[in-house]
Specification:
Elements (H helix, E strand, L loop, with lengths): L14 E3 L11 E3 L4 H12 L11 H7 L1 E4 L9 E3 L6 E7 L5 E7 L4 E5 L6 E5 L5
Antiparallel strand pairs: 1-2, 3-8, 4-5, 4-8, 5-6, 6-7
């Protein structure tokens, strides 16, 4: 689901009927929240003061299209990471004490927003938001 508000969205956690075309959950009532691409859009929307939506609401594929692929060693906080086929997206949060990348992402399998390693992510890209 998409939430383009600055700060906390009062709808989060309330039951809403899923209406996403093609989704396996369409028609079900689930707590309102964000999927992975919705989280990324919300973060960039909030960081830009409400001026920038990286995927323009089009999901992880559109987010990836608004980025430049970069080598893993060049990854910085704010860069995006993607699963194969852009099936999932996260944001580089930084590195741990051993230099391993830490990724923040909304993961249905974890039931919320989590910080993990790069397992499953196969590409990293720099959003156009940052320019050259």
């Amino acid at each position: 689901m998409k939430s383009l508000v600055i700060g906390w969205d009062s709808r989060w956690g309330t039951l809403k009927q899923v209406t996403a075309e093609g989704s396996s959950t369409t028609g079900r009532f689930l707590p309102y929240g964000m999927d992975c691409s919705g989280f990324v859009d919300w973060v960039f929307f909030n960081a830009s003061g409400g001026h920038y939506i990286i995927g323009r609401g089009g999901g992880a594929t559109m987010q990836h299209e608004n980025c430049l692929n970069i080598p893993w060693d060049d990854a910085l906080p704010g860069d995006l990471v993607f699963y194969p086929g852009d099936m999932h997206v996260g944001i580089v949060a930084g590195r741990d004490e051993d230099g391993n990348l830490r990724i923040i992402h909304c993961a249905f399998s974890y039931d919320g927003t989590v910080v993990t390693g790069v397992s499953g992510f196969t590409s990293v890209a720099r959003p156009d938001y940052y320019g050259d």
